[in-house]
Design a protein that fits this description.
- Two copies of one chain form a homodimer.
- Chain A folds into two domains: about 80 residues, Arc Repressor Mutant, subunit A; about 35 residues.
- Chain A is about 60% helix and about 10% strand.
- Chain A is built from six helices and three strands; from the N terminus they run H-H-E-H-H-E-E-H-H.
- The first copy, chain A, has a three-stranded antiparallel β-sheet with strand order 1-3-2.
- The longest helix of chain A is centred in the last third of the chain and has 31 residues.
- In chain A, about 20% of the residues are buried.
- The structure holds a DNA duplex (20 and 20 nucleotides).
- Chains A, B: GO terms for molecular function: DNA binding.
Chain lengths: ~120, ~120
DNA sequence: CGGAATCCTCTATGATACTG
DNA sequence: CAGTATCATAGAGGATTCCG
């Protein structure tokens, strides 16, 4: 993203967490600690293997999650948040809170419009 | 987004601010107060009219920005953040700060890798 | 089990031209 | 000035198959 004032780095953070399932992945890892590939698939049945893999790779690339492979057959791979990745939780929490109040606000807006249509 | 624990509403907020130019639009409005359509175009020359319009409509739809049209020829339309939209600034600031430190962290990672390649 | 490879679809964005 | 209308395109995501 260009043409943003003051050398803004909002987009840097945004790019880390944008991706259809990245938030879900991070929240599951934050909640469960360590998870194997198929455990992630089980809690997110709608994600395809390909997308899950690519999201995990990208999060790993940014240092947000850690990937540990155990050289055995069948393979075993464990994912977890890094300390660094955990520092994102503050932002996620804030976004969650704002989202909740936003939904409440929209509710109020819609009620008001209904009222005005009925009584205006 | 589904399959997220605890009825999470992170995605609600994310959906508001995802869009190639939405962050830029919000930051310009936060910085300048009120701006006309073509003023926004001038500070963001890479955005096409169509995309700028659709982003503005979506932000307005969510109550984040306010659109005021003056019924005159030639038309005059002014955009500004709503009080409500301004409550997002906290999140944007936090994301900016995280982005800055993330870039610093990546720098360090890359330096370390160079060092290890030279001296390992 | 945890992928990689291939092919496909759909949506966000862009280019361009026109208008009240 | 502030849009709308059309058409085009890249890339994110999805479906399916195969593999060590």
């Amino acid at each position: 993203m260009d043409e943003i004032p003051d050398n803004c780095k909002v987009a840097t953070t945004l790019d880390m967490i944008v991706g259809k399932w990245k938030i879900a992945i991070m929240l599951h890892l934050l909640h469960n600690g360590t998870m194997r590939f198929n455990e992630l698939r089980k809690v997110m049945p709608s994600v395809t293997q390909k997308v899950l893999t690519s999201h995990l790779r990208e999060l790993e690339e940014e240092g947000i999650i850690k990937r540990v492979t155990y050289p055995q057959v069948p393979p075993k791979v464990e994912y977890s948040m890094t300390k660094y990745g955990e520092s994102l939780q503050m932002i996620l929490d804030l976004m969650h809170d704002w989202g909740v109040s936003h939904l409440a606000q929209k509710q109020r807006q819609q009620s008001r419009q209904l009222f005005e249509n009925d009584n205006g």
